[in-house]
């Protein structure tokens, strides 16, 4: 792939062989009405710690998208991809049917009314409405009257007929591009599991994406989330064993990838503490250059790395690594030196504060060039001192969802590293 090629010349739908190759096409979701459907009573279940101010969150998100465009990436939005996957009425009806199943709307009359509501909308608006959720008050008065008993019995005072999906702007998690393929995830929580239905439709019906190889699927029984998957090189993947990703899922992913992908040879499984602030591997560890990584200092004593690879009989071998993380990375990536850049410069308080606001969660747009939240100025200064070029984006509202630039993006196409 030549650096001079235009985005339209990218020959394959998906191409992602590293964390840091020049980013050429990336998937985002601009936060929408789903954030306006957050209420304090239900925030914890919906995985938010506070309610972002939507207009400001959108301004911040637009600044993020502009920053990615200026660094040479085409920005693609989730609603547009899903809308373009609804290639005919039958597919649109199939999405509505499965969406209602997964939103657990079982009563026949309620299903009919909601189907009518969704199918009356153009594709893009319909998808946005699904994402936003449906308030009881949005149903026509006549429908509310007809459904009175059903609504009282199923929801009581609960104000939604269908829950919002406020975590959609973290496009990193419901599916992940790996090499030329994709893993579609079974999510750890019910609230986020509904997000992966959109990925199912993109990779089943979208004209450009429907033939992409599949490494993992949403029908699996154990959870795997994209924030736990890092592509350290075309041969080596890192996958977090975390609050969100189970060991069995990594076994399953490793079996498929190591057998079927033409390049990946090894998976490093990083066992990290299972807590909310470290929910995924990328909340404590990201790659910023060929030999440099950000890390949350608090996990360094609490991390165990396992190496998974196929032996000469193509049977999976797993062994535990000993020693410092720097040395393990050096060995498996064939590097002379690895530098770990400690969040908050390693200061106990700055590290905790900045990691909570995703100081270790950087998105590389090229080797040694990353997008970071402006608020994490201590970590950002350290990155610059080590020669990393940083692009800062505003983050007062976006950070309330507990995810940073890497969490808010899914690379669809990166250039290979030379
Ligand atoms: N990769 C990531 O760490 N994504 C951030 C996800 C935040 C979201 N509120 C969640 O709890 O799933």
UniProtKB/TrEMBL annotation:
GO CC, alphabetical: cytoplasm
EC number: 3.5.3.6
Catalytic activity: L-arginine + H2O = L-citrulline + NH4(+)
Pathway involvement of the protein, from the record: Amino-acid degradation; L-arginine degradation via ADI pathway; carbamoyl phosphate from L-arginine: step 1/2
Subcellular location: Cytoplasm
UniProt keyword annotation of Metal-binding present: no
Stated family: Belongs to the arginine deiminase family.
HAMAP family reported in the protein's UniProt record: Arg_deiminase (MF_00242)
Protein name: Arginine deiminase
Native organism: Oscillibacter hominis
């Amino acid at each position: 792939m030549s650096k001079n090629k235009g985005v339209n010349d990218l020959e394959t739908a998906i191409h992602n062989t590293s964390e840091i190759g020049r980013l050429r096409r990336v998937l985002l979701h601009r936060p929408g009405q789903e954030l306006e459907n957050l209420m304090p009573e239900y925030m914890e279940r919906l995985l938010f710690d506070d309610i972002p101010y939507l207009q400001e969150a959108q301004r911040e998100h637009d600044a993020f998208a502009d920053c990615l465009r200026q660094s040479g990436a085409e920005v693609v939005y989730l609603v547009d991809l899903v809308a373009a996957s609804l290639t005919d009425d039958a597919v649109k009806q199939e999405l509505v049917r499965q969406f209602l199943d997964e939103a657990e709307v079982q009563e026949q009359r309620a299903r009919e009314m909601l189907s009518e509501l969704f199918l009356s909308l153009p594709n893009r608006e319909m998808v946005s409405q699904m994402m936003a959720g449906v308030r009881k008050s949005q149903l026509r008065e006549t429908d509310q009257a007809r459904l009175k008993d059903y609504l009282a019995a199923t929801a009581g005072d609960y104000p939604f007929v269908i829950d919002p999906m406020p975590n959609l702007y973290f496009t990193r998690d419901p599916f992940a591009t790996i090499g030329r393929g994709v893993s579609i995830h079974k999510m750890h929580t019910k609230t986020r599991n509904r997000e992966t239905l959109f990925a199912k439709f993109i990779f089943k019906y979208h004209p450009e994406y429907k033939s992409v190889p599949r490494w993992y699927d949403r029908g699996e029984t154990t959870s795997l989330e994209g924030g736990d998957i890092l592509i350290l090189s075309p041969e080596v993947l890192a996958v977090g064993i975390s609050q969100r990703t189970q060991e069995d899922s990594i076994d399953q992913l490793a079996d498929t990838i190591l057998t079927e992908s033409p390049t990946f040879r090894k998976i490093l499984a990083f066992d990290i503490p299972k807590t909310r602030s470290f929910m995924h591997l990328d909340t404590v560890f990201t790659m910023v250059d060929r030999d440099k990584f950000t890390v949350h200092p608090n996990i360094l004593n609490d991390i165990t790395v396992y190496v998974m690879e196929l032996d000469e009989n193509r049977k999976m071998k797993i062994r535990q690594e000993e020693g410092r993380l720097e040395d393990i990375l050096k060995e498996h990536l064939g590097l002379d030196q690895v530098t770990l850049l400690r969040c908050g410069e390693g200061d106990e308080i700055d590290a905790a504060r900045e990691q909570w606001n995703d100081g270790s969660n950087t998105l590389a747009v090229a080797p040694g060039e990353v997008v970071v939240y402006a608020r994490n100025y201590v970590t950002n200064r350290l990155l610059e001192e080590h020669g990393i070029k940083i692009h800062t984006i505003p983050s007062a509202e976006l950070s309330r969802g507990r995810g940073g630039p890497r969490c808010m993006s899914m690379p669809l196409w990166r250039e290979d590293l030379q």
